[in-house]
Amino acid sequence: MSDYANDSAYHRPVMLAQCLAGLDLRPDGRYVDVTFGGGGHSARILEKLSTGHLYSFDQDSDAEAEAQKLARPQFTFVKSNFRHLYAELEGIGALPVDGLLADLGVSSHQFDTPERGFSTRFDGPLDMRMDPDGPLTAADILNDYKEADLHRIFGMYGEVTNARTLAQTVGAARRGRRLETIAELKQAILPCTPRGKENKYLAQVFQALRIEVNQEMQALQEMLLQTADVLRPGGRLVVLSYHSLEDRLVKNFIAKGKFFGEVEKDFFGNESKPFEALNRKPEEADPDEVALNSRARSAKLRVAVKL
Questions:
Q1: Which residues contact 221 (CB under 8 A, 6 or more apart)?
Q2: How many angstroms separate the CA atoms of 42 and 103, rounded?
Q3: Rounded to two decimals, what is the model's pTM?
Q4: Which of 16, 217, 143 is nearest to 7 (CA)?
Q5: Where are the alpha helices (DSSP H) in 180-276?
Q6: Phi, psi of 125 (to 5 degrees)
Q7: Is the pLDDT of residue 6 over 60?
Protein backbone atom coordinates (compact mmCIF):
# COMPACT_ATOMS: atom_id res chain seq x y z
CA MET A 1 0.00 0.00 0.00
CA SER A 2 1.23 3.53 -0.71
CA ASP A 3 2.37 5.91 2.03
CA TYR A 4 -0.78 7.95 1.61
CA ALA A 5 -3.54 5.51 0.74
CA ASN A 6 -4.30 4.55 4.32
CA ASP A 7 -4.45 8.03 5.86
CA SER A 8 -7.73 9.57 6.96
CA ALA A 9 -8.99 12.77 5.35
CA TYR A 10 -7.94 14.72 8.44
CA HIS A 11 -4.48 13.16 8.49
CA ARG A 12 -3.69 12.70 4.81
CA PRO A 13 -0.28 14.32 4.41
CA VAL A 14 0.91 15.49 1.00
CA MET A 15 4.10 13.97 -0.50
CA LEU A 16 4.83 12.14 2.75
CA ALA A 17 7.63 9.85 1.53
CA GLN A 18 9.41 12.74 -0.22
CA CYS A 19 9.16 14.94 2.89
CA LEU A 20 10.58 12.23 5.14
CA ALA A 21 13.41 11.59 2.69
CA GLY A 22 14.12 15.31 2.49
CA LEU A 23 14.45 15.57 6.28
CA ASP A 24 17.05 12.75 6.26
CA LEU A 25 15.73 11.63 9.65
CA ARG A 26 17.97 10.25 12.38
CA PRO A 27 16.44 8.31 15.31
CA ASP A 28 18.24 10.57 17.79
CA GLY A 29 17.65 13.81 15.88
CA ARG A 30 15.74 16.94 16.82
CA TYR A 31 13.09 18.08 14.34
CA VAL A 32 10.45 20.76 13.89
CA ASP A 33 7.16 20.52 12.00
CA VAL A 34 6.07 24.15 11.85
CA THR A 35 2.65 23.27 10.37
CA PHE A 36 1.11 20.45 12.44
CA GLY A 37 -2.35 20.65 10.80
CA GLY A 38 -3.94 17.23 11.08
CA GLY A 39 -0.70 15.70 12.31
CA GLY A 40 -0.05 13.44 9.33
CA HIS A 41 3.57 14.42 8.80
CA SER A 42 4.27 14.71 12.53
CA ALA A 43 2.95 11.22 13.26
CA ARG A 44 5.24 9.63 10.68
CA ILE A 45 8.26 11.62 11.83
CA LEU A 46 7.65 10.42 15.40
CA GLU A 47 7.60 6.81 14.21
CA LYS A 48 11.22 7.25 13.06
CA LEU A 49 12.51 8.68 16.35
CA SER A 50 13.92 6.78 19.34
CA THR A 51 15.82 9.18 21.60
CA GLY A 52 15.12 12.13 19.29
CA HIS A 53 12.44 14.80 19.68
CA LEU A 54 9.81 16.49 17.51
CA TYR A 55 8.46 19.99 18.12
CA SER A 56 5.26 20.77 16.19
CA PHE A 57 3.78 24.25 15.77
CA ASP A 58 0.19 25.25 15.04
CA GLN A 59 -2.01 28.17 16.10
CA ASP A 60 -5.28 26.27 15.59
CA SER A 61 -7.16 24.86 18.60
CA ASP A 62 -8.42 21.94 16.49
CA ALA A 63 -4.81 21.03 15.70
CA GLU A 64 -3.92 21.29 19.39
CA ALA A 65 -6.67 18.78 20.21
CA GLU A 66 -5.46 16.46 17.45
CA ALA A 67 -1.90 16.70 18.78
CA GLN A 68 -2.99 15.19 22.09
CA LYS A 69 -3.37 11.86 20.27
CA LEU A 70 0.40 11.84 19.66
CA ALA A 71 1.34 12.49 23.29
CA ARG A 72 4.67 10.83 24.20
CA PRO A 73 8.00 11.93 25.73
CA GLN A 74 9.53 12.54 22.30
CA PHE A 75 6.84 15.06 21.27
CA THR A 76 6.14 18.69 22.16
CA PHE A 77 3.26 20.69 20.70
CA VAL A 78 3.80 24.45 20.51
CA LYS A 79 0.55 26.45 20.12
CA SER A 80 1.94 29.38 18.20
CA ASN A 81 2.26 30.92 14.74
CA PHE A 82 5.46 29.73 13.09
CA ARG A 83 6.55 33.36 12.73
CA HIS A 84 7.62 33.03 16.41
CA LEU A 85 9.78 29.98 15.60
CA TYR A 86 13.12 31.04 17.09
CA ALA A 87 11.76 32.57 20.28
CA GLU A 88 9.53 29.58 21.02
CA LEU A 89 12.30 27.01 20.48
CA GLU A 90 14.86 29.04 22.39
CA GLY A 91 12.41 29.38 25.28
CA ILE A 92 12.20 25.61 25.71
CA GLY A 93 15.89 24.89 25.07
CA ALA A 94 15.30 23.17 21.75
CA LEU A 95 18.03 24.79 19.62
CA PRO A 96 19.57 23.90 17.25
CA VAL A 97 17.51 21.38 15.28
CA ASP A 98 18.46 18.81 12.62
CA GLY A 99 15.53 19.37 10.27
CA LEU A 100 12.51 21.58 9.71
CA LEU A 101 9.37 20.80 7.73
CA ALA A 102 6.84 23.40 6.57
CA ASP A 103 3.67 22.28 4.75
CA LEU A 104 2.15 25.62 3.76
CA GLY A 105 -1.26 24.31 2.71
CA VAL A 106 -4.54 24.71 4.58
CA SER A 107 -5.41 21.42 6.27
CA SER A 108 -8.17 19.24 4.84
CA HIS A 109 -9.94 19.53 8.18
CA GLN A 110 -10.05 23.32 7.93
CA PHE A 111 -11.40 23.13 4.38
CA ASP A 112 -14.00 20.56 5.36
CA THR A 113 -15.36 22.49 8.37
CA PRO A 114 -18.04 24.88 7.00
CA GLU A 115 -18.02 27.23 9.98
CA ARG A 116 -14.32 28.01 9.40
CA GLY A 117 -15.23 29.64 6.08
CA PHE A 118 -12.26 28.35 4.05
CA SER A 119 -14.13 26.43 1.37
CA THR A 120 -16.24 27.60 -1.54
CA ARG A 121 -18.17 24.31 -1.34
CA PHE A 122 -20.24 25.26 1.71
CA ASP A 123 -22.12 28.24 3.00
CA GLY A 124 -20.78 29.60 6.25
CA PRO A 125 -19.39 32.74 7.82
CA LEU A 126 -16.71 34.74 5.99
CA ASP A 127 -14.06 33.88 8.57
CA MET A 128 -10.90 32.11 7.22
CA ARG A 129 -8.81 32.59 10.38
CA MET A 130 -6.24 29.84 10.95
CA ASP A 131 -6.07 31.14 14.51
CA PRO A 132 -9.75 31.26 15.57
CA ASP A 133 -8.82 33.99 18.08
CA GLY A 134 -7.19 36.19 15.45
CA PRO A 135 -8.34 39.81 15.16
CA LEU A 136 -9.23 39.93 11.45
CA THR A 137 -11.82 37.95 9.44
CA ALA A 138 -12.58 37.81 5.72
CA ALA A 139 -15.82 39.70 6.44
CA ASP A 140 -13.82 42.52 8.01
CA ILE A 141 -11.68 42.80 4.87
CA LEU A 142 -14.61 42.72 2.46
CA ASN A 143 -16.66 45.25 4.38
CA ASP A 144 -14.07 47.61 5.81
CA TYR A 145 -11.10 47.77 3.39
CA LYS A 146 -10.94 50.55 0.82
CA GLU A 147 -11.63 49.46 -2.76
CA ALA A 148 -8.02 50.27 -3.69
CA ASP A 149 -6.79 47.85 -1.02
CA LEU A 150 -9.23 45.15 -2.16
CA HIS A 151 -7.94 45.66 -5.72
CA ARG A 152 -4.35 45.16 -4.51
CA ILE A 153 -5.18 42.04 -2.47
CA PHE A 154 -7.24 40.35 -5.20
CA GLY A 155 -4.57 41.09 -7.81
CA MET A 156 -1.48 40.28 -5.76
CA TYR A 157 -2.61 37.37 -3.61
CA GLY A 158 -5.31 35.84 -5.81
CA GLU A 159 -3.82 36.76 -9.19
CA VAL A 160 -7.38 37.64 -10.24
CA THR A 161 -7.35 39.12 -13.76
CA ASN A 162 -10.30 41.50 -13.23
CA ALA A 163 -9.22 42.51 -9.72
CA ARG A 164 -10.26 46.16 -10.12
CA THR A 165 -13.76 45.26 -11.34
CA LEU A 166 -14.07 42.70 -8.54
CA ALA A 167 -13.12 45.31 -5.92
CA GLN A 168 -15.65 47.77 -7.35
CA THR A 169 -18.35 45.06 -7.38
CA VAL A 170 -17.69 44.25 -3.70
CA GLY A 171 -17.73 47.96 -2.91
CA ALA A 172 -21.15 48.37 -4.53
CA ALA A 173 -22.59 45.25 -2.86
CA ARG A 174 -21.60 46.27 0.67
CA ARG A 175 -23.18 49.72 0.49
CA GLY A 176 -26.61 48.31 1.25
CA ARG A 177 -25.57 45.79 3.91
CA ARG A 178 -22.54 43.96 5.29
CA LEU A 179 -21.38 40.81 3.53
CA GLU A 180 -21.32 38.15 6.25
CA THR A 181 -21.65 34.73 4.54
CA ILE A 182 -20.03 32.83 1.69
CA ALA A 183 -23.37 32.65 -0.13
CA GLU A 184 -23.75 36.43 0.07
CA LEU A 185 -20.25 36.96 -1.33
CA LYS A 186 -20.82 34.52 -4.20
CA GLN A 187 -24.08 36.24 -5.08
CA ALA A 188 -22.52 39.70 -4.85
CA ILE A 189 -19.63 38.91 -7.22
CA LEU A 190 -21.67 36.84 -9.67
CA PRO A 191 -21.64 39.65 -12.29
CA CYS A 192 -17.83 39.55 -12.57
CA THR A 193 -17.39 35.76 -12.16
CA PRO A 194 -16.35 34.23 -15.53
CA ARG A 195 -18.89 31.75 -16.92
CA GLY A 196 -17.57 28.20 -16.98
CA LYS A 197 -14.64 29.09 -14.70
CA GLU A 198 -16.59 29.74 -11.53
CA ASN A 199 -14.72 27.25 -9.31
CA LYS A 200 -11.25 28.46 -10.27
CA TYR A 201 -12.25 32.10 -9.93
CA LEU A 202 -13.79 31.63 -6.49
CA ALA A 203 -10.72 29.67 -5.38
CA GLN A 204 -8.54 32.64 -6.38
CA VAL A 205 -10.78 35.10 -4.53
CA PHE A 206 -10.79 32.92 -1.40
CA GLN A 207 -7.02 32.43 -1.59
CA ALA A 208 -6.51 36.19 -1.68
CA LEU A 209 -8.76 36.75 1.34
CA ARG A 210 -7.22 33.88 3.32
CA ILE A 211 -3.68 35.14 2.72
CA GLU A 212 -4.63 38.64 3.89
CA VAL A 213 -6.59 37.41 6.93
CA ASN A 214 -3.65 35.30 8.15
CA GLN A 215 -0.80 37.54 6.93
CA GLU A 216 0.56 34.42 5.27
CA MET A 217 3.23 36.03 3.09
CA GLN A 218 4.65 38.12 5.95
CA ALA A 219 4.61 35.16 8.35
CA LEU A 220 6.32 32.91 5.77
CA GLN A 221 9.13 35.41 5.19
CA GLU A 222 9.65 35.87 8.94
CA MET A 223 9.75 32.10 9.51
CA LEU A 224 12.15 31.39 6.64
CA LEU A 225 14.59 34.06 7.80
CA GLN A 226 14.69 32.39 11.24
CA THR A 227 15.47 28.92 9.84
CA ALA A 228 19.10 29.93 9.29
CA ASP A 229 19.48 30.42 13.07
CA VAL A 230 17.34 27.43 14.04
CA LEU A 231 19.01 24.71 11.96
CA ARG A 232 22.47 23.32 12.70
CA PRO A 233 25.03 23.17 9.85
CA GLY A 234 24.04 20.19 7.71
CA GLY A 235 20.43 20.41 8.87
CA ARG A 236 17.62 20.10 6.35
CA LEU A 237 14.96 22.64 5.34
CA VAL A 238 11.92 20.99 3.67
CA VAL A 239 9.11 23.21 2.37
CA LEU A 240 5.87 22.26 0.60
CA SER A 241 4.12 25.16 -1.13
CA TYR A 242 0.84 25.25 -3.04
CA HIS A 243 0.87 28.42 -5.13
CA SER A 244 3.41 30.45 -7.07
CA LEU A 245 3.60 33.29 -4.53
CA GLU A 246 4.81 30.97 -1.78
CA ASP A 247 7.06 28.93 -4.02
CA ARG A 248 8.78 32.07 -5.36
CA LEU A 249 9.61 33.23 -1.83
CA VAL A 250 10.95 29.78 -0.86
CA LYS A 251 12.96 29.45 -4.08
CA ASN A 252 14.54 32.90 -3.71
CA PHE A 253 15.33 32.40 -0.03
CA ILE A 254 17.08 29.08 -0.64
CA ALA A 255 18.98 30.42 -3.65
CA LYS A 256 19.98 33.81 -2.20
CA GLY A 257 19.23 33.93 1.51
CA LYS A 258 16.81 36.77 0.77
CA PHE A 259 13.53 37.31 -1.07
CA PHE A 260 14.40 40.08 -3.51
CA GLY A 261 17.54 41.26 -5.27
CA GLU A 262 20.80 39.44 -5.82
CA VAL A 263 22.71 37.21 -3.43
CA GLU A 264 25.11 39.12 -1.17
CA LYS A 265 28.87 38.53 -1.40
CA ASP A 266 31.69 39.00 1.08
CA PHE A 267 34.86 41.09 0.56
CA PHE A 268 36.45 38.27 -1.45
CA GLY A 269 33.46 37.82 -3.75
CA ASN A 270 32.21 34.63 -2.11
CA GLU A 271 28.44 34.22 -1.99
CA SER A 272 27.01 34.74 1.49
CA LYS A 273 23.91 32.59 1.85
CA PRO A 274 22.78 30.14 4.53
CA PHE A 275 21.43 27.28 2.37
CA GLU A 276 22.25 25.10 -0.61
CA ALA A 277 19.37 23.68 -2.66
CA LEU A 278 19.30 19.87 -2.94
CA ASN A 279 16.79 19.88 -5.82
CA ARG A 280 17.21 22.45 -8.61
CA LYS A 281 13.57 22.07 -9.61
CA PRO A 282 10.82 21.44 -7.06
CA GLU A 283 9.52 17.88 -6.70
CA GLU A 284 5.86 17.32 -7.50
CA ALA A 285 3.39 14.63 -6.43
CA ASP A 286 3.01 11.57 -8.63
CA PRO A 287 -0.27 10.92 -10.49
CA ASP A 288 -1.31 8.14 -8.08
CA GLU A 289 -1.18 10.49 -5.11
CA VAL A 290 -3.00 13.27 -6.98
CA ALA A 291 -5.78 10.77 -7.83
CA LEU A 292 -6.19 10.02 -4.11
CA ASN A 293 -5.67 13.53 -2.79
CA SER A 294 -6.51 16.51 -5.00
CA ARG A 295 -4.65 18.86 -2.63
CA ALA A 296 -1.41 17.31 -3.88
CA ARG A 297 -1.99 18.54 -7.44
CA SER A 298 -0.43 21.96 -6.94
CA ALA A 299 2.18 20.97 -4.33
CA LYS A 300 5.82 21.83 -4.92
CA LEU A 301 8.53 20.48 -2.62
CA ARG A 302 11.90 22.20 -2.14
CA VAL A 303 14.70 20.78 0.00
CA ALA A 304 17.84 22.59 1.13
CA VAL A 305 20.78 21.94 3.47
CA LYS A 306 22.12 24.48 5.97
CA LEU A 307 25.70 25.45 5.10
A1: 249, 253, 259
A2: 11
A3: 0.90
A4: 16
A5: 182-188, 198-214, 216-230, 244-256
A6: -70, 150
A7: no
